[in-house]
From TrEMBL:
It comes from Parapedobacter defluvii. Residues 3-230 form the ABC transporter domain. SMART domains: AAA. InterPro entries: AAA+_ATPase (IPR003593), ABC_transporter-like_ATP-bd (IPR003439), P-loop_NTPase (IPR027417). It holds the Pfam family ABC_tran. This is ABC transporter domain-containing protein. It comes from the Bacteria. Keywords: ATP-binding, Nucleotide-binding, Transport. The keyword ATP-binding applies. Belongs to the ABC transporter superfamily.
Amino acid sequence: MCIQVANLFKCYGKHPAVKGISFNARPGRVLGFLGPNGAGKSTTLKILSGSIPLTAGQVSICGLDIQQNSLATRQYIGYLPENNPLYLDMYVHEALTFVAEMHHIVRAHERIAEVISLTGLEAEQQKKIGQLSKGYRQRVGFAQAILHDPEVLILDEPTSGLDPNQLQDIRLLIKQLSSQKTVLLSTHIMQEVEAICDDVVIIHQGQIVADFPLNELAAMYPGHRLESLFMRLTGPPSTRI
Ligand SMILES: Nc1ncnc2c1ncn2[C@@H]1O[C@H](COP(=O)(O)OP(=O)(O)OP(=O)(O)O)[C@@H](O)[C@H]1O
């Protein structure tokens, strides 16, 4: 297992956002991390990426405990946060050079060129990030996240707000990257999960309410498609179908 989460808790002050969740993610697969607004998805992804501390429980990335090996585990992780914060005044190539320096990437010039090609940023690399469309900004976020060739990719709603063409390109990129990585993907788009995910975890009010391989959905939840299952498990009682 590349990501192992055991009995993870997170409280913001007195507010419990994540209440003892456990799940695993495997290499070569995309795990769709689903849940309604406020369920605890971003909180969990921030903890896994080392952005915020956990309150209790264990998380290991590629066999290393994130609390005991905070710096080492970050090298294994590429993280694209929700809303993709970027330095808008930087040029694309300049921003990637900056990230490469932070990661001490050897032969950075070649690696940046490789990632620019992979993310389809060739024509935009000399532009300022602030001049780019949302789809291209998202590609820059991806490029930054994969530059150090991490084993694990953590993507928080990476396609939200993209037009159908950009959305399709980004999904293809995720699928392409997943053959050699462990991908944890948070999304609200059920077609996206059906198109690119291998495994599904559903979180509701800080607790896991389902965890299954997507190809076992019909056997485990007869009569349900993903959307109806999601609504049954996370909707208010009056709307559960
Ligand atoms: N920095 C914070 N301080 C206090 N409470 C927070 C903070 N961040 C999140 N929360 C609360 O924790 C809970 C989980 O939030 P989180 O952002 O993890 O949910 P989410 O599943 O990612 O939601 P969404 O789909 O809307 O992005 C919510 O009740 C939220 O209000």
